[in-house]
Structure formats: C-alpha cells, structure tokens
Amino acid sequence: MAMGRLKTFPGGLHPADNKQWTAAKPIEDCPLPEALVIPLSQHIGAPAELCVAVGDLVKKGQMLGQAKGFVSVPVHASTSGEIVAIEPRLHPSGRLLPSVVIKPDGDDVWLENLPAADPHALSAEQIKDRLRDAGIVGLGGATFPAHVKLSPPEEKPIDCLIINGVECEPYLTADHRLMLEDPEKVLQGVDILRQVLHVNHVYIGIEANKPDAIQLMTEKCAGTDVQVVPLEVKYPQGAEKQLILAITGREVPSGCLPMEVGVVVQNVGTAAAVADAIVNGYPLIERICTVTGSGVSEPKNLRIRIGTPLQHLVDYCGGLSGDPAKLIMGGPMMGMTQLSLEVPATRGTSGLLIFRDGDIDLHEEGPCIRCARCVRACPANLLPTTIAAYSRLDMFEEAEQHHAMDCIECGCCSYSCPSLIPLVQTLRHAKGAILEKRRKM
Ligand code: SF4
Ligand code: SF4
Fold it and tell me: Does 252 fall in a domain?
C-alpha cells in the first residue's frame, strides 16, 4: 500500500531488523512446563505481597501476591496446581528474588466468578480498579502499572491516546502478529482506554515494515475516528517521547512524562490485555513472546504463561542450534542479558534472543576515538560519551547536569560506537546512582 511521506523523529539508527525469521509465523500456544516460577516482582513499583502458602491448591487466575501501594499490582497463578515452593529464584534482573513455584495439575482450571463486565456499564474509576486487580502493566517491556498511567493529576489534562504498535526492536514480531491475528481485541482495548481517558484523539502508530498490519488495522478502524499512522522504519521509533513527537509534533520537555503534553501511550499488547481484563475478567497470566536468533532451532512466536522457564521455551522451539554465546530477554537494543535459561519469563518478556558463538561481536572495548557517532545517534540529544565519562568517575552530579535522566536507554550510542564502549550500561548506572541520591534527600 502507498504510504506517502512517513512521520519520524530526529536521530536514531537503522539496524538490520531481522524480523524475517518469525514475521510470518502464527502465534502458537506454548504447552505448560513441569513447574511455573512466578516472581512477586514483575513490574515497576513495589513487589506484590505474598498471600498464599506452600501446599495450597490454586486455580488459574488466583491471586498469589497482592498489590502493595498505589504503584504496584498483584500477581496471579498462570494455571491451576499446587504451590510446591516459595523461595528466592533467579530473576531476569540477575538477582535472587522471592517467587512462587507452582506444579501444574494439568486441568488448567480458571478461578470461579471472574469479574467479567460490560465496559460501558463501568465508571473510569471502576475500570482502573479492575485493571489494577488484574495486574495489567505495560507489555511493551516497561511493565509500568496501567492504572497509574491512566490516572494523571487533574492539572495535566490528557487529550490524546497513542497506541504503540511500532515494535522497532530488531527480531521481535510479537506485536506484529497480535495486530494481524487479533485486531478486534486490540481495538476493544483501545475503546476501553479512551473511555477512561475521555480523549478526542486516538492514533495507532505502526512502522512501515509491517504493511499488512497497517492495512488490516486501517480497515478495522474504518468508520471510526481512530487513525492508523504509518511511521518511518527507524530505531527507537517506538520509544514514547520519539513516538509522540513523530505523531503529534509535541515535544516532551526534559525531565517530564508524556502527560506533560497531554498524551498517554499504551502498547498494542497492553490494549489487548485491557480488553481481556475488563470484558472477560482475565488477569494477566500470559503474553506473546518471540523466541528467535541464530541459536534457536525453530524461531517462533509463542503465547506463553507467565513463569515459564526460558529453557522450556527453547525446548518447544526445537532446542538450541549450537553453543549459545549470548541470551537476551527482550530485543537486542534494550533487552537484558541473561545468565541462565532457568530464569522464568515474566510480564515484560517480549522476546528471547539467543545468539550462537561466532554470530556476535565479542571483541574487547577500545578507547574513545572522539568520533561523535554516539552523539549523532542519540535521539534524546545527549552527549553519551561525556555522561559516560562522568559516570565512570562517580561524578553523578555532573552527569545529572548533562541530563543523564533524559536517557531512554535505547542503546543507540552503544550500537554505533566503533570502540564497543558499553555506553548505555554506564548511563544506566549513572541514572541508578542519581535516583538513589534523590531518594535519600
Ligand atoms: S544516551 Fe541514552 S538516549 Fe542517548 S543513545 Fe544512549 S541510550 Fe539512547
Ligand atoms: S561513538 Fe564511541 S568512540 Fe565515538 S565518540 Fe562516542 S564513545 Fe567515543
């Protein structure tokens, strides 16, 4: 389809997208593993507070841990079975964190009396309460609780909802397949989200490398005021601030959130989860995940239960296709390197990438040659090399003065650095230290 001049943002990169391995693969239901490991911390905010004990028999959708505070959500059992352990287990963050281990009973029985409802019969507050109780978080990878994002303060009126179907991370095709296979559910979620926010402007942003999804979503939106916006293929087109600028021309000021310019952004997967939570009463116990990379025998898009060990996903995809050199949860640009396939998939697991020995550059870091490629690539207009230098010297005040907190951790700087300097990791470290200092003040 003809798309005319495509909208975009300044800066960014054009890495090879490598989506061809899974873009045409329909979503398959991954079978249940022998044991599910469900961490109590799977979202931004306070971890859930345990409300079950070892030996309990639970149903699918039953709460295992309740929300602890406003910026928190509960976690739920992903299937029916017995709780066989509650103990620290290896988490995607690399730490040992409290987790509930369920041995499935094979019946996969839902909890009775799920709170299914007609969204139009609910107030905005009731919808937000139900989203919190269902554990709905941003499924683009950020895992920020949806009910919090949908509760801007009164002095920040929202007039625009952007649904993020960009999926600009190379390799990942989970959102693409969702739009192709279940557009009605995505749009049902969009309707609920706009009902909560009372917005007039609704856009669905999709990168131009998914023409089939653009065409289908456009057809499904015909006769409504929801606009599908094709976007230039450029990384990180799906980052919130870059997406808002590309679609609305509004620039989120330094240090501010999208609500500052009247916008809320939600991912297409989150929209579908919102529909499931309100219309069917289903809590967030599964998600779509792309398992791919040169180290996987048969790359696939899978519907996975939260808590499924990564090893089980790999086994279902035909096993490893050689010695793995690197495991990444998420995409190659913003994903988190994993040390073990024992780690469970969580609500933020949009992808699992495995690269074989010899397929990735494992050279040692070299000195900075002042080429400024990182500066040109940075979509947030930062000086990555300068901030990284301050960070390495523990000069976090200076890093903050150079707007380290505006770093969106997109990885464009590291990707473009010929000296393989781990800039984004250093920036992340600086942000952590600055936040820690703010908390103590
Ligand atoms: S400094 Fe941050 S925002 Fe800029 S390119 Fe690096 S990771 Fe992205
Ligand atoms: S891209 Fe790497 S080598 Fe070039 S200026 Fe930035 S940090 Fe230095």
Answer: yes
